[in-house]
Amino acid sequence: METQTAAQWREVDIAFAGPQAANAYTDVDAWVIFNHESGRQLRRPLFWDGGTTYRVRFVSTQLQGEWQWSVHTARPDHDFTPASGALITGPPAQDHPHRALTRGFVGAHPSGRSFSFADRSPAFLVFDTAWAMPFRATVEDVKLYAADRQSKGFNAVFLMTVQPDMNARGPVGRNIDEGFEIGFHDLSEGRLTKINIEYFQYLDKIIDVLLDHGITPVLQPVFHGFGWKGLDVAGPVVPPADYARYCRYLVARFAPAPRSTCRVVMAPVPNHRLRRVVGRFRPGTRTASPPESTTGLITAMTNTKRPTGWISSPARRGIWVITYPIALRPCGRSGPPRRS
To answer: pLDDT tens for residues 205-251?
Structure first.
């Protein structure tokens, strides 16, 4: 049985050799159950990372003790190696630009009126928008961007995880005129089944740069509303099963925690779709002002600005909906916050 060390609040990446499948992204369903000696149990999904490589990403919420883990699958003929192991937990890092890696997950303060880290120190998010960064920017671009935004006090950024327009046309590539990288080869058909693993491996590097500069990426699965250039956005037509699978993939790959760590996934989708395919949620409210991060609401803004480059914010309409598994709403009641 494999044994690894796991500092509290830091991501642990465990790689597996798994089944060869025609489309492992859609055909393989597996997860890992982590049992702590205190009695706490956590379940994390595996995700496919190309070929016969699968991974699980996990964050220990415990300061000390041992986690025993084991792999489980939906099909008995799908085998994974290793099949079990252990993690020995230790104290968190003493210094890191991203406070969640030293102070713990961001959650609702006991007062219900603000955010705080696990150690109860205050957490205040200042958001920027760089929607097209995942499919337009290079790692070097992101390093320059992150250093600039960090110096100006920003600590969170909204991102579209994939280029969402079905009829977008341009060369494949980053940081070139009208170019973009492709996350799903069948998104142009309104589907999310033919994943481009290399795209998401590169997105890993982008997110690591942001985290190293203390910036929380806020990941939007598939845009609704305007999209990138307003060329038939895929969000409203993607089948619910495809959308749910992709949300689970984002949670598996980028949110290795039972609640919110330094990564958040959000989705502007009609309430009935999200209820069926993701789980519990809280809707935001229409507003013409910036997101009210201090009250835990992520809201939609309406404008008509045409996006240029990958830093510009596209026009967007509708209501933001935050996916429950890794996003928080500290308000203890439904509806928008009262204003004095």
So the answer is: 999 999 999 998 888 899 888 889 899 999 999 999 999 999 999 98
- Judge whether 265 and 250 are in contact, CB under 8 Å: yes
Q: Which amino acid is at 331?
A: C
CATH superfamily of 2-90: Immunoglobulins (2.60.40.10)
The model's pTM is 0.78
- Report DSSP letters for 154-220, one per residue: --EEEEESS--BTT----BSSSSTT-B--SBTTGGGT---SB-HHHHHHHHHHHHHHHHTT-EEEEE
Q: Where in the chain is the domain with CATH 3.20.20?
A: 100-326
Q: What is the pLDDT of residues 158-189, one digit of tens each?
A: 999 999 999 999 999 998 899 999 999 999 99
Are 321 and 283 a contacting pair, CB within 8 Å?
A: yes
Q: Which CATH class is domain 100-326?
A: alpha beta
